[in-house]
Predict the 3D structure of the following.
Amino acid sequence: MIGIAFIALAAYLLIQSTWVLAAGFHAPHSPTGIAWTAITAVVVFTAGPAPARP
């Protein structure tokens, strides 16, 4: 059932992304989205190398 759900999600994302690209839709800038991306980048770049340290 999980595999079927992932295949359905992949199909939905493929169709939705193709539709958006074909329509030329551009999402407006979102301060919340920009902040979330910045916070995520800081966490990933900070926590990522941690296991490699002796």
